[in-house]
């Protein structure tokens, strides 16, 4: 399978090392407008095809699959350009900046008969698969809820960076998301239209472009199948604890967590045989041993959250004529949840999925406000 990558920044290294280590894929070209970044990655993976214009790469390299590793606003135009040339797409998350763009990606790929998949790699890792199996087998009784906490960046930014991963994890464990209910605040008050801004203004320590966002703090409730719930808490803190990320699953007869070890960053599974945590009355949490052989792909061990896990699913599915697990309408779910989060806050109501109004919920409100102000002026 001939593969190309657009965007040679941080996450591209993970895509390229994944493709370089799968026997079914050959990296034939990479593209970046920044020549330094382009040649650095191309040299690292000994890639011959090097392009500063991704359209030329898509035209000339006869690709079967392209990974999109640019910031979110470019995911849509690159995916549509690839689809028009009959190339399957694996997009980095968030799939797009809003559902209008995501729908365009989806219909372009559907029309062209190619797959559009999004890279939420966590659900594909052996640890998540194992925990899901144990939960489905009733190891913590009946699953009631899942809690996720952000890394500590401003919530509106974090929602697009980590929140989309959390929505996907919750969707994975609950077997589907039916509704979202959220409350957002900014500098201590309930977020208003005045607090809507660009992601780079909200989060000055991470300049990745996540479009229009709002809020430094969020509490998001998610409704799953059969009366199960998810809860995502995103709030700022000076120390950005990456090790806090990962699901905390609460069941009727116990709890389970997947959290990266604070020192090594490697995921661990923790289990507690009691349904709530209450200081010294809670039994000890136990570290659950895990079969390390499950981390091997073609004889090589991979970190627990590496992109190779989602790449492997996409490549295998395409080769076997199947639909990748996070493609089709499923690719849109985590972004639907982002839109529903904002819509819920501004309407103070629960929002059912899929969203019927596809416009960006924040930009829609900004535009209405501008129209009203102009209307009053004239
Ligand atoms: N799945 C994950 O765990 C994970 C982790 C990190 C980042 N991401 C996502 O990956 C995406 C990229 O993030 P990053 O941290 O690698 O960003 P980055 O800023 O490090 O890299 C982006 C690259 O895209 C290039 N670029 C810009 N315009 C281009 C164009 N027209 N054509 C080709 N290249 C272009 C830039 O020059 C840059 O090198 C984001 O959407 C981010 O959310 C996902």
Fill in the keyword field for this structure.
ten-stranded mixed β-sheet, six-stranded parallel β-sheet, 378 residues, 20 strands, Rossmann fold, alpha/beta, binds nicotinamide-adenine-dinucleotide
Task: Write the topology of this structure.
Layout: E1 2-6, H1 12-20, E2 26-31, H2 35-44, E3 49-51, H3 54-60, E4 65-68, H4 75-84, E5 88-92, H5 99-112, E6 116-119, H6 126-136, E7 143-149, H7 155-174, E8 177-186, E9 189-190, E10 196-198, H8 199-202, E11 212-214, E12 217-224, E13 229-234, E14 248-251, E15 254-260, E16 267-272, E17 286-287, E18 296-297, E19 300-301, H9 308-319, H10 333-347, E20 351-352, H11 361-377
Parallel strand pairs: 1-2, 1-4, 2-3, 4-5, 5-6, 7-13
Antiparallel strand pairs: 7-14, 8-9, 8-12, 8-20, 10-11, 12-13, 14-15, 15-16, 16-17, 18-19
The structure holds nicotinamide-adenine-dinucleotide.
Nicotinamide-adenine-dinucleotide (NAD) binds at residues 6-12, 31-34, 37, 54, 69-72, 74, 92-93, 119, 121, 161, 208.
Give an overview in words.
With 378 residues, this protein is of the alpha/beta class. 34% of the residues lie in helices and 24% in strands. The protein has helices at 12-20, 35-44, 54-60, 75-84, 99-112, 126-136, 155-174, 199-202, 308-319, 333-347, 361-377, and strands at residues 2-6, 26-31, 49-51, 65-68, 88-92, 116-119, 143-149, 177-186, 189-190, 196-198, 212-214, 217-224, 229-234, 248-251, 254-260, 267-272, 286-287, 296-297, 300-301, 351-352. Strand 14 (248-251) and strand 15 form a beta hairpin. The longest helix has 20 residues, at 155-174. The termini are far apart. The mean pLDDT is 95. Residues 6-12, 31-34, 37, 54, 69-72, 74, 92-93, 119, 121, 161, 208 line the site of nicotinamide-adenine-dinucleotide. Nicotinamide-adenine-dinucleotide is lined by residues 6-12, 31-34, 37, 54, 69-72, 74, 92-93, 119, 121, 161, 208.
